[in-house]
Amino acid sequence: MFTHRLATEADLPAIRALMDLAIAEHLKAFLGPAQVELSKSIMGLDTQLIADRTYFLVEEEGRLAGCGGWSRRATLYGGDHSTAQRNAALLDMSKDAARVRAMYTHPDFARRGVGRLILDLCEGAARDAGFKAVELMATMSGEPLYRACGYHDIQRITAASKDGVDVPGVRMGKAL
After folding, report:
1. Over the chain, what is the mean pLDDT?
2. Domains of the chain
3. pTM summary value
């Protein structure tokens, strides 16, 4: 039985630990070791989501199973350390899509509905805030889930590139 709540600053160490584990474990089925390592430079937590009270934690018996959030800000992806992608400008809900951000599932809880629950929470909160659509940047490991939940491709990109190593990503969207 999963429960959920909004994250607080006190949750940061547990969130970061889950993210590191999820990146290392989930991406290795889709990317090579150098790509997984490069992914860490662009993925992670944007603490603005916690400050905005839009970041959810999913737990089972007090154990963190997953996390993810949504945003009314222009940043599509990236953590506090990946400043190139950051843009804190507020979106116009009449024409812009809310952003689904920083979704991670602990490997022990993979394929148990955690990702779908987080998406439902994010989509519902964005809809309640007045948004008519959502967008996200999918990793290769997340793309199948998002597609199964009704998301469509907007644009395939190279999310990071360094020394001949590229990390692919897919900008995806969904009407609410």
Report:
1. 95
2. 3-132 (3.40.630.30)
3. 0.94
